[in-house]
Recover the amino acids of this structure.
């Protein structure tokens, strides 16, 4: 899988036993001073505790949540997805933005709010460190926004070296209208995963009754979580956010299962 640290335990040589070392001692040498049992137990327990802590650190799996968000709708889903990922023991969600392709003048003209500096930009090379990835983006005529496409276009070296092969990935999206691409935006993006040999992980109908709610407008599909942005002023509903959290939890469970297989 990736290099998030959870799938490949480190291997260390065990120290030579005291019995083996004693064979090389001079038979006339004085006998070693015995160590009190209590002291030995304390040191043994400390060593065991340190080893356990070290193993827990190594076992932490990483799901990268990589997104582009112009007006904050996709970012809102990303934050709830992270909550879902973090709820699975041994798995951690990490938020990243893809680089912006528009200049400041264009962004100001479009009245785009300042970015949260607490979420770093990601480079293509960093994807290899993830054990799984969820990509989020708004739609542009039924497919991903240019900013996310530019990021995928920058992964050529990873494709050449086959560094993302077998890594699980999924999508979440934002559209302006009900017929604006809640499904097409996700399934047209599958081509990016296919060329890398990544494993597409849809949520299907695992959200249960929430997938069948018809009493209010709801984004999302079997491909992944989604939100309707309208003219940009509509905020994600609690159902849309709950579906995003479910996707994070579901993806984390899949990643964990694959790494333990």
């Amino acid at each position: 899988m990736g290099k998030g640290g959870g799938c490949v335990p480190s291997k260390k040589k065990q120290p030579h036993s005291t019995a083996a070392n004693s064979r090389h001692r001079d038979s006339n040498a004085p006998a070693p001073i015995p160590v009190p049992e209590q002291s030995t137990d304390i040191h043994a327990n400390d060593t065991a505790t340190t080893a356990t802590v070290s193993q827990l650190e190594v076992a932490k799996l990483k799901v990268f949540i990589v997104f582009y968000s112009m007006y904050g709708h996709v970012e809102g889903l990303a934050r709830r997805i992270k909550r879902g990922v973090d709820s699975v023991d041994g798995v951690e969600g990490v938020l990243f933005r893809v680089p912006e392709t528009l200049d400041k003048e264009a962004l100001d003209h479009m009245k785009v709010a300042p970015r949260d500096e607490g979420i770093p930009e990601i480079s293509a090379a960093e994807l290899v460190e993830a054990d799984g990835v969820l990509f989020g983006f708004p739609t542009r005529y039924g497919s991903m926004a240019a900013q996310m496409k530019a990021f995928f276009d920058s992964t050529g070296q990873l494709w050449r070296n086959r560094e993302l092969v077998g890594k699980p990935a999924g999508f979440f999206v934002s559209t302006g209208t009900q017929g604006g691409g809640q499904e097409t935006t996700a399934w047209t993006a599958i081509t990016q995963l296919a060329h890398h040999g990544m494993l597409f992980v849809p949520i299907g109908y695992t959200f249960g009754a929430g997938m069948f709610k018809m009493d209010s407008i709801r984004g999302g599909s079997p491909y992944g979580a989604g939100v309707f942005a309208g003219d940009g002023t509509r905020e994600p509903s609690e159902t849309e956010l709950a579906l995003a959290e479910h996707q994070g939890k579901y993806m984390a469970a899949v990643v964990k299962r694959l790494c333990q297989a």
Notes: Strands lie at 61-67, 91-97, 132-140, 143-144, 168-175, 199-200, 226-228.
